[in-house]
Amino acid sequence: MDRHVSLLTLAVDDLDRAVRFYRDGLGLSTPGIVGREFEHGAVAFFELRGGLKLAVWPRASMAAETGLGVSRSGPPDVTIGHNVDSRAEVDRVMEQARHAGATIVRPAGKVFWGGYAGYFQDTDGHVWEIATRSGQ
Amino acid sequence: MDRHVSLLTLAVDDLDRAVRFYRDGLGLSTPGIVGREFEHGAVAFFELRGGLKLAVWPRASMAAETGLGVSRSGPPDVTIGHNVDSRAEVDRVMEQARHAGATIVRPAGKVFWGGYAGYFQDTDGHVWEIATRSGQ
Question: Which residues of chain B have a CB within 8 Å of the CB of A104?
C-alpha cells in the first residue's frame, strides 16, 4: 500500500447539521451536499490541506455501503488530530468549536508528551484533538 | 480552524499486532512503538503523504486521555479512504490487506459513483476503502 490517505469519512445522524457544524461553525469550505441523485449518495466534502478531504455521510448510508450495520455514537475508536502553532491558537479553535455546538471533552491544558492540547466532540460524537508542541 | 489534519489515531486492542499489520502487512514505515515511558504513552506512528501521520494507540489509553470510556469494535462510524490509480491497484491492495490478516468487508467492484472500490477491516475493525476513479 502506498502512503496516501485521501478521504476521511465521518458517519453522521443529520447531514445538514454536520454541514452547518463544519462549514459555518468551523469555517471549512465545501461545495455543499452532493450526490442526492444516488441511493446512499448524499454526502458533503470539505477540502483539507495535503490532498486530504473530509466527508460527512449519513450513518445509514455508511451501513448500507459497508454492510456492517449502523453505528451509534459511543466511546471513540478514532481521534482526528489538528496541530496548530501556538497555545493561543489551541484555545481559539477550542472556543470556536464550543461556539459551533461541539462538546468540550477535555479543556486545553498541558499533556503528558509535553505539549498543550484539548479534545472536543462534534455534533455526532467524533473526537478532535487540537494540539501544539509550542511552549508559547 | 485552518484546514490541516495532521494525525489520525486508531484505537487498538493489541499494539504489537497493529504494528505488525500496518508495518509488516501493509508496508507502512514506522520507527516502532515509542512513548512507553509515559502512562498511556505507548503508541506507534506511521508516516503518510501530505504531512499526515497515522497512529495506533491502545483503546485503554485513548479512553484514559479522553475520559470517554473504552471503545469496542462495532459498526464503523469512520472510514479511511485510500485512492489509487487503477482497478488493478485496488485489487492488489485488497489482496495485500487480506494476506496481512484484514477482513474483506466488501470485495472490490463497481460502486454507485462510477468508480471501483472495496472495503476491508484491519485487525481492530477499522474500515478502509480502497478506491479508484479510473475505468482501467
Answer: none
